Amino acid sequence: MSKPLGELSMRERAYSPPIKEIILENFMSYEYARIPMKEGLNLVVGPNGAGKSSILLAISVAFGQAYTERSRKLSDLIRRGKEIARVSLIFDNREKKGSRPIPYSKSDTFMLSRYLRRDGSYWYEADYREIDKSEVVRLLREFGINPDNLLIIMHQGMIEELGAISAQQRLTMVEEAVGFKEYRERIFQSENDLKNMNSEEGSLVQLIDNANQTIEYWKQVYDRYLEKKNLQEHRDLLSRELLWAQEVKLSKSLRVIRERLAQKQESLDDLNDQQKRSGSESEVLHKSLLEKQVELGKLYGAVIRAEKERASDEGARKAMENLRDELESLREGLASLKSDLDQKKQKHVQEFMDFSSQKSKRELDEAARKKTELEREVSSLQAEVGSAGDSIKRITDEYISQRVKFEVLGFRIKLTESEMRDLERSEREAEGELNALKADLERAGERIITERQPYEVSEEMKLVSAQLQKLQDLPEDAERIYKDYVGNIEGLKDKLQQLQENRKLMLRELEERKKAWRDAVVGLIEEITPVYQQVLATVGALGGVRLEEGAGIEETGLQLLVGYKGAPPSVLDPYMQSGGERSVALVAFILSLQSRIISPLRAMDEFDIHMDPQNREAIFKMILAQSRMGQSSQNIVITPSIISVIDRSAHVITVQSVHGASEVKEFAGKAG
């Protein structure tokens, strides 16, 4: 893949390529022209209006020169009636010293073209590949060509501009042309760096002062932060202690619950045994009670029967007593009647009466005996009934007591079972709470031995939290900020010290760079002054080149001195010398620089317009003399004058206008 234009430095090239040919198509007065160029001096001659200046303007257009684009619209450079124009520069790209000047082009020639359209658009091509202007600028910079520098390309009428610029501008222009621009740039860079250092030093001092004030504030914040941190650590410790205190309390509660459960289980077992025994005794008493009730029922039946018999006998007895009374009454009545009866009848009556009395007595006696027996039996039965009643009462009391005891034991069993269920529920809850604590306890780490109750720890946590609440406005990154400030202020102090040391080094380096620049400029002036004076001598003038010292490099300038007709040299000035005198001095100055200008291409258009014929010929002799010295540069000189001193060392190109179109003819020149 080929490299873009401008990528290689001049050190990578064996030499700078000269222009072999200029091709103009529909450009200004040119319809189509191929203008050959040679190394050394190329002299373009022809009458005014023939199109000579258009050749240098075409080179400027191809180079993208800012002067051209400011002076005229690009579309105005297109030949009348045409829509597009092209300017092409053909460079010699043959190998020399083992490499090509433009190495990414493998051809012996390299073509740079610029297209102009009537609508104002334009573009560049390099070997028919479209490129942008920045690549053109890089390419020219690598060859040391700055088309905006008057010492490299001087368009028509610009000799006056070169004379009118300030001494400071002239020095800057010379520095760029001879390759000293880097000296100036390095000085400016050092001055800018030093200025930045001074500014930075002031800023650092201010920053350190501000930081010292700020760090006091953050020190107080940091101390409070440490207090907060200690409180947080204490709270964390209390949180762990609270967890372990809860674990101790729950474990103790669980142990007590399990002990109570064991006790309740023993009580329940004892109550169940008591209830079982009470139930058995109740069953025995109930059976005995039933038996006694049966026995009592039988006794009640016997008593009822005896009572009935006694009542029956009592009635019979009473009937017999009534009968006896009636018999007594009857006997009394019979006794009163006995006298009225015969003896037989009386006898019968007496017998009846005796019989009745005896019978009544017997029956009464029998009834009395039976009554006695019945009373005795009733009394005996009643005694047995009383005894049975007492037994039943006693058994009933015992049975009731046992039933009450049984029910009480059942209630106590249920109560105990309920209490056990409550205890089991409490056991499960305690186990659940302990299990829920396990994860927190694992995170809490090593067991904390504490004898405090959870509420005691919790109360202390509340106090710590209240203290932390007062510190809640502290930023969490207070420690980082404080340490950053401490580190920053130390860093700022170190940086300030390093900056001060660097500033001292930079001051020394700046002085060294200024000295190197001044030595280079003074050396250049010492080198070019003899040449300048030699050129002026050919026209009978005196002169010199002088460095005009200023307060700084920007105020330092380059003054040209010239004196004509025996007058002492004076500063070149638009108001002191005539146009021709200024032109001679300026061309002499340009010629004195030729050996030091780094650009391989130099061009001057109609520099001699104000010169008289004698001075013109003298200057051209110097130009030809320099050309014959064999310098590897390409010079283009455009003049409308007729030059009588031309020899075959110059490549002469004539330009003339034929039917409204410029035509070019090669007149003479050495081989390229």
Structural key phrases:
672 residues, 11 helices, six-stranded mixed sheet, alpha/beta, rod-shaped
Written account of the structure:
By secondary structure, this protein is α/β, with parallel strands linked by helices. 62% of the residues lie in helices and 14% in strands. The protein contains eleven helices and 15 strands. It has helices at residues 52-63, 66-71, 133-142, 158-164, 167-178, 181-338, 343-444, 454-470, 478-537, 579-593, 613-628, and strands at 19-27, 30-36, 40-45, 84-92, 109-117, 122-126, 129-131, 153-154, 541-548, 557-564, 570-571, 601-605, 634-639, 650-658, 661-668. The protein has a six-stranded antiparallel sheet. It has a six-stranded mixed sheet with strand order 8-12-13-3-14-15, sandwiched between helices. A three-stranded antiparallel sheet has the order 9-10-11. It starts with 18 loop residues before the first strand and ends with a strand. Mean pLDDT is 83; it is low at 1-14.
